[in-house]
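Minutes, project check-in
Item: structure for the 199-residue chain
Input as provided by the requester:
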Amino acid sequence: MRFNIFLSLLFSVVLTSCGGISTKPTLYDATAIKSVQIWNIGFLYEAGFIEEGISKEKGASTRLVKEGQPPIANKLRDDIYFELKNQKFDVDRTRRDNAGEIRLFPIQSVYGGFRSVDVEFVLPNGKDAGRIQIKNEKSKPTSDDIEDFTESVVQVIADILNKEEKLEPPKKEKNIFKRFFLQIQHLLGLNTESQERNP
């Protein structure tokens, strides 16, 4: 388990250092988030989705409001949901009582991919426990980048839900190696302790 967490943290660091994503956490309460056992996953704004773009004429900004979530946003939520389920987190897309809320606010790029996604963590009592913005560092994210970006978002969320886990040196493994070398010394007829007592 600890080794898997180490790989997860290493994976996130590699992504960030390679310019894949950057994160900006605020209002973070690791203990409270870790205490929640079940989560509902949905959107921060259920009524509509605001898509921002830049028109080709004189760089004027445009804003388009659509009713409901676009298919690409629903797919992002579904992919995050299924991957978290695969990682043994108790999540659901339908609202359940006594569950925390993972709320997504994706911003789509005019090139077809995602510029960023805000993720809010709300406790079962309605208190905000944390918020993190996950930004795609690619200047022109396209639809071809969605899968990689989604995997990065999933890993960030999983790391936050596991935040209280601490990496410790594998003491048992060290003991195993120590016993192994002692057995080798014994087979070779070496006894370092006796040599130290009788120089």
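Outcome recorded: The CA atoms of residues 44 and 119 lie 8 Å apart.
No further action items on this chain.
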